[in-house]
Design goal:
The structure holds 2 protein chains of 2 kinds. In chain A, the strands form 2 sheets. In chain A, strands 1-4-5-8 form a 4-stranded mixed sheet. Chain A has a 4-stranded antiparallel sheet with strand order 2-3-7-6, with no helix packed on it. Chain A contains 12 helices and 8 strands. Chain A is α+β, with helices and mostly antiparallel strands. Chain B is an alpha+beta fold. Chain B has a domain at about 185-330: Up-down Bundle (Butyryl-CoA Dehydrogenase, subunit A, domain 3). Chain B has helices at about 5-25, 25-35, 40-50, 65-75, 85-95, 100, 105-110, 185-220, 230-245, 250-260, 265-290, 300-315, 320-330; strands at about 115-120, 125, 135-140, 140-145, 150-155, 165-170, 175-180, 220, 225. Chain B is globular and about 70 Å long. Classes of the chains: A alpha+beta, B alpha+beta. Chains A and B meet through helix 7, helix 8, helix 9 and helix 11 of A and helix 8, strand 9, helix 9, helix 10 and helix 11 of B. Bound molecules: flavin-adenine dinucleotide. Chain B: Its cofactor is FAD.
């Protein structure tokens, strides 16, 4: 084994560093000026083949051959320079890969460039009040307009992250009420700026309310062109499998977890508990999991680079991350002691925060719970590990509906 | 960049696995467990015939990672014999300048001279009655090779771990060849390597417990269905897999860090030992619970792994002790 990236990658790293030194000098720029600077910087990054590597040039990407090592070097160097990477979010992580795999030429032309440049922001319109883990039970319905050119949509979507910012949504709707559960769903793209759509922020348990919480959307004869349908009519369930695959791959981040663990050690120092043998033991115990997650990420990365299948461990990464987050929350709660009495400024969200003390860990303590729900609840992950990973027989109720869960 | 096993490494594991399947089936383990011996010559010879003895020779093209992979398979099979002691004795003797110790090297590599591990200040030594030499010492006192015979007093005890029985051993006035002083980096390297190999043995044991529990859940029927269909049990099994599978990479990393002489190698060894020994104990308990009554029998044999897990956990320092070291080494 060898964790060095090799001479070729190091030469590439030097090249990326030179690019960053020449092009990433945000200096004193603020507001609109900074925004324009970032946009131009990203364009230069695409030009050089650093950003949107899997997106063809004709849609605004840099169309590079798959090279996970180079991609990692780019992430590391951009991170070190605190330079902006790709726009991120649902659009880049889900809409774009789905359109590249299943979209029409018209859809790719219409949406990909605008999405990667950050003009279009996408909400994920999957969950409904009655459909969560049992996603294929969605009831929001779409019917063809009399002239057959538009879908007319009625129903409700809920828990939409970034909903207040979103310009567009990709959604699962029921179009064939008489078909079998999984075969009656169609995958639609929709412009959210229209009279038939009402959106409302939902206040989160973190205390956060207003523009940065998840939302609910009401569709009352909302419309979208039939040409914005991705994949065949009634094929939406299968189209959505592409997006969830991408979502899973983007959630598990070893570097983020490592940084959070280092901050937990800092918290123990800050609260004067670092010398406490019980705290030291808890920290080292949690670090065992953090490192196991990190080295397993190396393993997955290495298998991906070699084009080999890493096996069932891939299915475990989301639940592993969730469980480690819980453990860190429990220790953080011990460490912050009475700071837990104080609601941190800008709790749970992105409001103005100012200087925050140990109470800021309440963000992690509450926020880490999101992982156990969003993107497939933990029990669903356990089902996936047990059934797809270990080959255990499917639950009888679920076996009746092939591929029923999220 | 490469952080997964090569085809050769997988082939070595398969070879060891196949050998142990032939020479160490459950009925052999049962017979051994109820016998009086602390060593099984047949399986030892079969393993040594694979050339495992030389894995940690300085000029070998293998390293601690390969040794760990072999010990993982040995742990999965609850293999008898002082495999960890043998590999480390070869590593230490071959790197020392002591001619009298080096005179044993060829026979150690071939496995015809058996070496038991007696690191630390515990009097308990596996397979002591079979050993012709002992690798003794500690981080504080350095390493030595002690010859069996005069001055080595061995008192058998009823062992908990039936696959690698221990005895109580004292070394007073025995023939002793100094291998490395406490200040010699070799001393710490061998002590760290021992932690990695115990972690690897534990990994293998935990994987075995998970695998047979999953296999049993597919076969055993209750309420007219395989029990693995019930979500409660399915989630227990998913958690067993979740506990052990990502932890595999912790062993790989610790062994790789040792081979590549990375700065964090000593700490990685401590973390791997602490984490995997905890995982192993949890896995064996979960496996027995997942099996129902059959798991609670002697006959089914899961107890051998539970016992081995109990041994590995306490051997060469408990998880809490190694976490305390890891905290110190991190400068917390
Ligand atoms: C912070 C956050 C952001 C989100 N963002 C979005 C978004 O942008 N777009 C979107 O569409 N959705 C989003 N969601 C919704 C999320 O996908 C759902 O909440 C999730 O799929 C669970 O569905 P549910 O809330 O209906 O819970 P339910 O499905 O009702 O689950 C409730 C409980 O029952 C358990 N359960 C359910 N089924 C089973 C089963 N078969 N076996 C065992 N246990 C079971 C679950 O594990 C859970 O503990 C978000 C959620 C959160 C918390």
């Amino acid at each position: 084994m060898d964790l060095s990236y090799g001479a070729e990658a190091e030469a590439f790293r030097a090249e990326v560093r030179r690019f960053l030194a020449d092009n990433w000098q945000p200096a004193e720029r603020r507001g609109a000026e900074l925004k324009e600077f970032i946009r131009a910087f990203r364009r230069a990054g695409v030009e050089r083949g650093y950003l949107y590597r899997s997106v063809p040039r004709r849609y605004g990407g840099s169309e590079q051959p798959v090279d996970v090592i180079r991609a990692q070097v780019i992430r590391e160097e951009f991170g070190r320079a605190r330079a902006p990477l790709e726009v991120g979010g649902n659009g880049v992580n889900m809409t774009v890969p789905t359109l590249l795999e299943k979209g029409t030429e018209e859809q790719r032309e219409l949406f990909i460039r605008k999405t990667i440049e950050g003009d279009y922001i996408w909400g994920q319109g999957y969950s409904e009040p009655g459909s969560g883990s049992d996603l294929a039970s969605v009831r929001t319905k779409a019917e063809l307009s009399p002239d057959g050119t538009r879908w007319i949509i009625n129903g409700q979507k809920i828990w939409t992250s970034q909903g207040m910012q979103s310009t567009h949504m990709f959604m699962l709707v029921r179009t064939e009420p008489d078909a079998a559960k999984h075969d009656g769903i169609t995958y639609l793209l929709i412009d959210l700026d229209q009279p038939g759509i009402t959106r409302r922020p939902i206040r989160q348990m973190t205390g956060e309310q207003g523009a940065h919480t998840f939302c609910e959307f009401f569709f009352d004869n909302a419309e979208t062109p039939v040409s914005w349908q991705v994949g065949g009519r009634g094929q939406g369930w299968y189209v959505s499998r592409t997006t969830l695959k991408h979502e899973r791959a983007s959630i598990g981040s070893a570097d983020g977890l490592g940084n959070q663990f280092r901050k937990l050690v800092d918290l123990a120092r800050e609260t004067g508990r670092i010398g406490d043998p019980l705290v030291r033991d808890s920290l080292a115990r949690i670090e065992g999991f953090v490192l196991a997650h990190r080295y397993t990420s190396f393993r997955l990365f290495s298998c991906a680079a070699a084009g080999e299948d890493a096996g069932p461990v891939q299915l475990m990464m989301k639940l592993y991350l969730t469980e480690i987050g819980h453990e860190m929350a429990l220790l953080a709660q011990e460490l912050i002691g009475e700071y837990a009495f104080i609601e941190p400024a800008g709790a749970g969200g992105r409001g103005p925060r100012g200087v925050r003390g140990p109470e800021k860990w309440l963000d992690q303590i509450m926020g880490s719970l999101g992982n156990s729900i969003a993107g497939g609840a933990s029990n669903i992950q356990r089902n996936i590990i047990g059934e797809r990973g270990l080959g255990l027989p499917r639950d009888l109720a679920l076996a009746l509906e092939a591929g029923a869960e999220k | 960049m490469r952080f997964h096993l090569s085809a050769e490494q997988i082939a070595i594991q398969d070879a060891v696995r196949g050998t142990l399947a032939d020479c160490w089936p459950m009925d052999r383990l049962h017979a051994f467990a109820d016998g009086a011996d602390d060593f099984d010559p047949a399986s030892w010879e079969a393993l040594m015939a694979l050339g495992l003895g030389g894995i940690l020779l300085p000029d070998s093209d293998m390293g601690l990672l390969d040794a760990a992979l072999v010990n993982e398979v040995a742990g999965a099979a609850a293999a008898p014999g002082p495999l960890i002691g043998q590999l480390l004795a070869v590593a230490a003797v071959a790197r020392s300048g002591n001619a009298a110790a080096r005179a044993h090297l060829d026979a150690l590599v071939a496995g015809t001279t058996v070496a038991a591990l007696a690191l630390g200040d515990s009097p308990y030594v596996q397979c002591a009655r079979a050993a012709q030499v002992f690798l003794v010492g500690s981080r504080e006192s350095g390493l030595a090779l002690v010859e069996a015979g005069a001055g080595v007093v061995i008192e058998p005890v009823q062992p908990t771990d039936r696959s690698r029985p221990v005895s109580r051993v004292t070394f007073e006035g025995a023939v002793r060849h100094e291998l490395a002083a406490a200040s010699d980096p070799l001393t710490a390297q061998i002590c760290d390597a021992a932690l990695v190999l115990v972690a690897a043995d534990s990994l293998g044991g935990a994987l075995h417990c998970t695998d047979i529990s999953v296999a049993y859940a597919k076969e055993r029927e209750q309420f007219g269905q395989p029990i693995g269909r019930f979500q409660g049990l399915k989630h227990q099994l998913a958690h067993m897999a979740l506990d052990v599978e990502p932890a595999r990479a912790l062993v790989w990393y610790a062994a790789y860090a040792h081979d590549a002489a990375l700065d964090d190698a000593p700490r990685a060894a401590a973390m791997a030992k602490a984490h995997l020994c905890d995982v192993y104990v949890r896995s064996t308990r979960a496996a027995i619970a997942a099996h129902g009554g059959i798991g609670y029998t002697w006959e089914y044999g899961l107890n051998y792994w539970l016992r081995r897990a109990a041994f590995n956990r306490a051997w060469l320092g408990s998880p809490a002790q190694h976490r305390a070291r890891a905290a110190d080494l991190a400068g917390w």
